[in-house]
Write a structure and sequence with these properties.
Ankyrin_rpt, 418 residues, F-box_dom, Ankyrin repeat-containing domain protein, mainly alpha, Multifunctional_ANK_Repeat, Serine Threonine Protein Phosphatase 5, Tetratricopeptide repeat, 53% helix, single chain, repeat
Length: 418
């Protein structure tokens, strides 16, 4: 008897013994009759054993008919429904997947099937934050109309308002605020919506949040405050706006310690000048590199180094990963900056930081010209300390033969050389 002519009960019995979607799918494709007969079983199997992956996929891709089938057939199985609120993965649930990609009809379909609009999980934390991050205004409106919590916390960006603010979706920001989103809410990478907007370079959103009484000096988050966020990203107009609104130019915290360090680290010389004009402390300590001068020296921004020195930055200030600006510049091979610092009386034998001193740093990194420059300016070739113990050991460990010879020629003690 041909396979399609077998009784339905027998075909279903065969299916019960197939334990993979691939096998069921292949079996169902034997002919059109079998496909119509067995499609439901395939969806039921997916719902029961595969975490409703078909529903997630269809919601993400915008395949409305597949969503309908997954829901219809999964619901027929008592213990293995195509769970509309199933959690897991990047999107957390089917509603968040559809919301992320702006599939309005599928969002409505899932809501009609009692999807939890406030379900937590996934990268964005909830469906409203996902739609807000991507700027899907109609989906945001639909979720709010179905009682989505506009102040729900969670996810990478903390809240829907912070998400919309970070990515510059002005209309969504306005909509959320009209629906009583808390402009001062704390949480997420940027801690608050104002810092997120300042990082994202949307001046209108920054102004809107300030008009709604956002705290301009709120602390916390990746950048510590809104001014540091704008300074790090080089958003000059936002920096000016925040300063005009009395942002604390010397506020401490965040990745860079303060706004001046952030601008210096990324080479934003115009912003550095703006901040200094507003009395930023050029010698403020904080952040990974200790101070603005060390930040600029490590990154090789000689214009900013000169600007900071002209504004009386302490050339020998201690602290941070490299201990001082000279060691930072020496590590990264910025010869012009090394010379600038020496001309401003940098102590070539200052101790501290990862390498102990500038000569060991340059020797470890293989910067022969800087090694020569430091020695010519009376660097102690036998100074001890740091990761390698001495400049000679550092050069030897890294295989920089020319520097080894240069140090030996200058009477470096080779007794401990490996």
């Amino acid at each position: 008897m041909p396979l399609p002519d077998l009784p339905v009960e027998l075909l279903e019995s065969i299916l019960e013994n197939l334990n993979s979607e691939r096998s069921i799918s292949a079996f169902s494709r034997a002919n059109h009759h079998l496909h119509n007969l067995l499609t439901g079983h395939l969806y039921r199997h997916n719902a029961r054993w595969c975490g409703s992956s078909a529903l997630f996929w269809a919601a993400r891709q915008g395949r409305e008919e597949t969503v309908r089938k997954a829901l219809r057939w999964g619901a027929d199985v008592q213990d293995g429904n195509a769970d509309i609120n199933a959690q897991g993965g990047y999107y957390g649930n089917a509603l968040q997947a559809a919301s992320t990609h702006g599939h309005e009809k599928i969002v409505q379909l899932l809501i009609n099937k009692n999807a939890n609009v406030n379900a937590q999980g996934g990268y964005f934390g909830n469906a409203l934050q996902a739609a807000s991050a991507e700027g899907h205004e109609k989906v945001v409106q639909l979720l709010i109309e179905n009682n989505a919590d506009v102040n729900a916390q969670g996810g990478y960006l903390g809240s829907a308002l912070q998400a919309a603010s970070r990515f510059g979706h002005e209309k969504v920001v306005q909509l959320l605020i009209e629906k009583n989103a808390d402009v001062k809410a704390q949480g997420g990478k940027y801690r608050n919506a104002l810092q997120a907007a300042s990082a994202g370079d949307n001046e209108k959103i920054v102004q809107l949040l300030l008009d709604k009484n956002a705290d301009i000096n709120a602390e916390g988050g990746h950048f510590g405050n809104a001014l540091q966020a704008a300074s790090a990203h080089g958003h000059e107009k936002i920096v000016q706006l925040l300063l005009d609104k009395n942002a604390d130019v010397n506020a401490q915290g965040g990745e860079y310690g303060n706004a001046l360090d952030a601008a210096s680290a990324h080479g934003h010389d115009t912003i550095v000048q703006l901040l200094i004009n507003k009395n930023a402390d050029v010698n403020a300590h904080g952040g990974y590199f200790g101070n603005a001068l060390q930040q600029a020296s490590a990154a090789g921004y000689d214009t900013i180094v000169q600007l900071l020195l002209d504004k009386n930055a302490d050339v020998n200030a201690q602290g941070g990963y490299y201990g001082n600006a000279l060691q930072a510049a020496s590590t990264h091979g910025h010869e012009k900056i090394v010379q600038l610092l020496i001309n401003k009386n940098a102590n070539v034998n200052a101790q501290g930081g990862y390498f102990g001193n500038a000569l060991q740093a340059a020797s470890a990194a293989g910067h022969e010209k800087i090694v020569q420059l430091l020695i010519e300016n009376n660097a102690d070739v036998n100074a001890e300390g740091g990761e390698y113990g001495s400049a000679l050991q550092a050069a030897s460990a890294a295989g920089h033969e020319k520097i080894v010879q240069l140090l030996l020629d200058r009477n470096a003690d080779g007794a401990g050389q490996a």
